[in-house]
Amino acid sequence: MNLLVKILVIFGSSASIGFGIWHFFVPKAWKWYSYIDINATELVAAVRAINAFFSLSLVLFGIVNILLIYGDKSNRYSIIVMLAATCILWLTRVTFQVIFPQGSMYPVLQYGMLSAFVIITLCYLISLLSILFQKIPV
Question: What are phi and psi of 66, to 5 degrees?
């Protein structure tokens, strides 16, 4: 694996892990549940479960990408599959931020989030394309 790919994956994965850990605390920090009717206990449980699943997914995707890129047992196929899945997830996040922007009350937050999402996506996308188009010795 070339050094650029390793650097990009470690950067993108570290950011993914950071977003995942941070997102565990988002509901409390942004008082998500204050917007939900107190009697809607199932909705609160659903939001809590979705956020936990999302947060853990970001952390795990980041860790798995790092393990695959730096592991001596991983192969090109497994790295491509994992990077492709990660690219799809981050491209989806970028798309949602463009179409349904979060943080729109604070333009710096809105465009800061978009910038971060684009940078993370590019880290993974450049890595994926680099691996896909590298010459493989026969």
Answer: -65, -45
User: Could you give the CA distance from residue 69 to residue 78 in angstroms, rounded to a whole number?
Assistant: 10
What gap in Å lies between CA 62 and CA 11, rounded to an integer?
Answer: 10
- Cα torsion through 107, 89, 61, 127, rounded to 10: -90
Q: Where are the beta strands (DSSP E) in the chain?
A: none
Of 111, 112, 118, 123, the closest CA to residue 95 belongs to 118
pLDDT at residue 114 in the model: 97
Q: Which residues of the chain have pLDDT under 50?
A: none
Q: Are 38 and 84 in contact (CB under 8 A)?
A: no
Q: Tokens 């409390």 map to which residue?
A: 28
Phi, psi of 88 (to 5 degrees): -60, -45
